[in-house]
Every structure is written in C-alpha cells, then in structure tokens.
Amino acid sequence: GGASEYDYVSYQSDVGPYGGGRFYAKPRQCVAIPADLRLCHGVGYDKMVLPNLLEHESMGEVKHQASSWVPLLNKNCHMGTQVFLCSLFAPVCLERPVYPCRWLCEAVRDACEPVMQFFGFFWPDMLKCDQFPQDDVCIAMTAPNATDVARPKGTTVCPPCDNEMKSEAIVEHLCASEFALKMTIKEVKKENGDKMIVPRKRKALKLGPIRKKNLKKLVLFLKNGADCPCHQLDNLGHHFLIMGRQVKTQYLLTAIYKWDKKNKEFKKFMKKMKSPDCPTFPSVFK
Questions:
Q1: Which of 74, 145, 146, 228 matches a 20 to 30 Å C-alpha distance to 167?
Q2: Where is the NTR domain positioned along the sequence (predicted)?
Q3: Which fold has domain 159-273?
Q4: pTM metric for this prediction
Q5: What's the CATH code, domain 5-144?
Q6: 73-96 average pLDDT score
Q7: Which helix (H) or strand (E) element contains residue 1?
Q8: Which residues contact 135 (CB under 8 A, 6 or more apart)?
C-alpha cells in the first residue's frame, strides 16, 4: 500500500551493539498496526516498522510470535509490559531504531518472570535486558522509581486460574497452548510446591505433544501452585476446559475454565473452537 520505505543503512550506532540492530541493514516499511495484532493494537500509536527489532520479516511472523505473549499481558504483572514488548515487536516509525530502556526491561522482567514460571516459561534470551541501552535515547514509561509496583501477597490467585470468561481470551489461551482437554477431575493433591490434578474422564480437543496412549495415565501440574488459590478447583462437580503445555516430562496446566454451556461467552468460544484463528509459525518459546 502507501507504506513509506525507510532505508536506515546509514545509521550506525555509537552506543554499543543492541541485539544486532545498530543500524537498519534492510529497507524498512512503516505499516499500520493491524487490529488482530492483539499484543500491540491500542498501545498508543498506530504505525510500526517492519522488519521489527526482533528481526521478524513479515506481519504473519510478528502476529504469531506476539500471540504467545498476549496471555501474559492479561495477567497485568507490570504496567510497562505492553510498552516494553511493543517497542520490540511493533516499534514506532522513527528515523533510527530506538530500543526499550534497560531499566524498563528489568522492571518488567522482575515483575513478570515469576508469573511466567507458573506457565513453565523463563525470560527468553532474545529479551535479555543487558543488550538494551542505559544512557542513550530509549523507550521508557515513567520515571524509573515509578516501577516499584507493590508486590501482591500470597493470597493472589494462581495465574493460570486467573482467567476472564471472554471468548477472545479463551481462544488466545488455546492458540498459546500446546494441548487442550475437556475433563472431569478425580482429585487435586499438593506435590513439591505444585498442585497435581488427576483427571477422571478426559477428551482431547487438541493433543499437541500428548500421545493418545498416554492420555489415560495423564496427570497435570499447576506449577508453583500448591499454596495459591484456584477458585475453579473449589468445586470438582462439573466438566472443565483445561489447556497446557509440556515442560520436560510434566504436563503443565496453563489455563482452566469451567465447561459452562449456559455461559454466553463460553458458547461463543465453542463455535470458534472448531476453527480457531491461530497464527501459524514456530513458537517463540521453543
């Protein structure tokens, strides 16, 4: 379309090598942030540079890689999460690349990595904070001391259980998960700081890494979940939609919903589930 071509080859940074993006070696395009780039639509500006600062070349790749992060955004672990991630996934159109400030990266990492660990994720190498600038022009939010968000106390709901019953959010979880099951639960036990969930009946909606023959013996773990509340598990007398991913030999629960056919949003999800609109690229977290 009418995207303006930027050619940034001439810009050579004099402040150290941030993530190989010291200058733009390829012609860049300034394009509109599409509505289905959920991570960054509504971030506060409406155009972005492609390829982005993570070297994603196409919008399809950006959407897919960004989709893994949308569930984290919904957990509100830090007020700067969206600004930080979008400064890399959907950078503002400027004459030269401007990276997020190192302190912003550190503040978001320190607040969000504990939440990510519930899902079996660690802060990935591509977002290592020491590659970002400390003193140069950089993308910030508010003054560095404003990043001390009060830490929630131990009564905070386990993040995988802290879900809105909204059809879009359920589809986002489905897209970001490796497997999805409809199940009834026999029992929930504590084990090594985790909650262990033993299914009674189970039906696979998306098998992912689970082999059919292993479905019978399947147990799920709510990572670090022994002592945080998970209100869905207060009453085991109905069916659940459970999504998750495999980490080493364990199957981790990453989202749980009551299977509630009377709920309008859940009904909408069931329609969408037949053909979820998930972007298809290899996942960023592999």
A1: 228
A2: 158-278
A3: OB fold (Dihydrolipoamide Acetyltransferase, E2P) (2.40.50)
A4: 0.70
A5: 1.10.2000.10
A6: 92
A7: none
A8: 15
